[in-house]
Amino acid sequence: MQIYGYLIWNHWKNIRRALRQKDRWLSLLAIGVMLFNLTIILVFSGTFLDKILDYYYREFRHNFAGSPISPALFVNKYLMEMFMGLFSLRFFLQQGPKMQMQPYLHLPIKREKLVRFFQLFSLLSFHNAIPYLFFIPFTLNFIYLRGYGIQSTIIWFAGITLILLFSHYANNLLRALHKKNSFYYLITVSLLALLFLLDELVDMHLLRTFSEILFGRLLEGDLLFLVLILCSTVTMFLVSGHQIQSQLLINPSSDGSNRANQRAIIFAPERGQVLNLILLEMKMIWRNKRPKHYFILSIVFALAYIALMLAESNVFNTQAVSAVIGIFASGTFALNYGQLMFSWESTYFDGFLTRNIRPEELIVAKLMILQGSCLVFFLISLPLFILMSPDLLLLHVTFLFYNAGVTSVLMLALAIRNQKRVNISKSGSFFNYEGFSAMHWLWILPTIIPPALLLNFLDSIQWTALLCIGGLGVINLVLSRQWSQFFTERFITRKYLMATGFRQHES
Amino acid sequence: MRVEVQHLVKRFGDSFSLEIPSLNINAGQTFGLVGNNGAGKTTFLRILLDLLLPDSGTIKINNWKTSQSDEWKSQVGSYLDSSFLIDYLTPLEFFSFVGSVYGFNKEQTIQNITPYQTFLPSGALSDSTKYIRDLSTGNAKKVGIVASMFIQPNVLILDEPFANLDPRSQIALKSLLQRLNKQHGTTLFISSHDLAHVTEICERIAVLENGSIVREIQTSDATLKELELYFAEG
User: What is the C-alpha separation between B142 and B113, in angstroms, rounded?
Assistant: First the structure.
């Protein structure tokens, strides 16, 4: 038992020291505000869901006979989709326990015990606590006090808890498998996206029917269903534990996938330095977990999210949403990747600075990569616009110019401000914010606000708005050479600060 | 190619400052910098390579001020640490990238690397091999050192080149450095903890202590003993 005491103590110290780190207060403040906001929304929704549904979704909450369905039955139908959404968030945000175990592996503690401890310890996560802000008031208000009886209430609530636990350990398993081979991760993300899209776009309602049956039976107090969920959760706990334990001895860089079995790329001086630098960066994106997943997830995001927005555009039919669709359809990669344009190369930045690479060529290459990514993502999301919303095609073309001209330049400006080191092979998760700071999020606003305002103010004469937005992009594209010169000068003055920052390893 | 340091000062708060009033290394000279941990050797090398801006003073390589011009970069090879390696490339890809930066095509790059083949890890030049990040520390370092040498620089700056290398590689590196110096007249600037190797390669050695050069020695048969005695006495 004493060893568990030490482990808990070490973790507590780790958390306290992380909180005390410099520059964390701004992030903590932002997280605090977000958590407060989330708490209010969830508790309020859990308490007054019937009123909210009556106000916003009156037609959804009535059956064919026209009488209202109880909030519990209504929620049951959407719970599975909600849990899947939460699961996706978990994967992006929640770290698995494997990495925390490394410092203890050489100590005389049984590995099985160590894995169990960290599996249990990993339960202390916001992801497991936050859903209860909704479920506790909801269970009390709309299940217990609506006459479902104490047994049904307990079984339903226990079912919810077990599914949250299942989702927690499924995330641990997926992360562990993902470390071994990112194929599992791609399959899971694709399956989740496909199920979601089938339900939303083709109205197959597979998830909703399953959800309705599962949680409906729990609400009826069916113990058998609870036992089934319990067995699934225990199985997931054991399987994920087994997988984590089996990977403890695998060196992350010796799993075979890192072997260079691809055709070697040869850099030739005849191609010109700019093209060589672009080729190098493309290799960097493809051969390192974090930029690679930024790229893949940007594709998933551009396709799934934009499809959803386009399908539901009658629900969110505002100009601001049009701006968001436009920006993210072709600019999603530039927005996510561009802010770290130099940090991606932080681990070999010193080598770059001392070799015969001209700063202007480096800047031109970076700008061309950002502009090129807008064209690539424009083409990737183009079929969606053609199939689902041809009337938004013009918007899509307009924002290609805006993103290539304006967003790319803004992202490069941000990248030159960034002095934070990024370990590109450390973690492949999309929401690994290493290298970002709160300021970087705020800097996205100048990208989105001007076109949103233009679209809003010029609502009645949308052609003019689109012309202005596209025009801004075209002007900036024409000025690419001037922007490159400007950024080259900025780069030359800031390179020492950047190099010093990139040498600092985050603790 | 000549390296000149004039009135160099770099302060880090009140705790440490690097101060080198004057240091000139003539073209083709082999210069060694020795000193204890924290003496300022790496800081000095970073300033030499324009990776760190000094508070005052100038560095000139062949009369080019390093902080004001990029001309010197085409003449200087350097390897300080792993931040000079692009570790997601294979060694061959890395050499081809470095070669392209200095204007060598694939054939020229391979031709220039051939003399270093025995020093490099086995299979480093085959098409299908490991990425640099999957090599051991010593082998990755060999790739970095060769990348700084095969371009046949006029000035070569290395930080701790012998650390992490196995004995055979240390001996091979010594002869490769001497050959580069003799055949191409490359000026060598080597910082090291290894007194025996430095005295063997360098004709001139400076001892750096707390940011200042406290002793300069023209290497002779007695130098190694002299240095050992100096560091033993603390």
Answer: 12
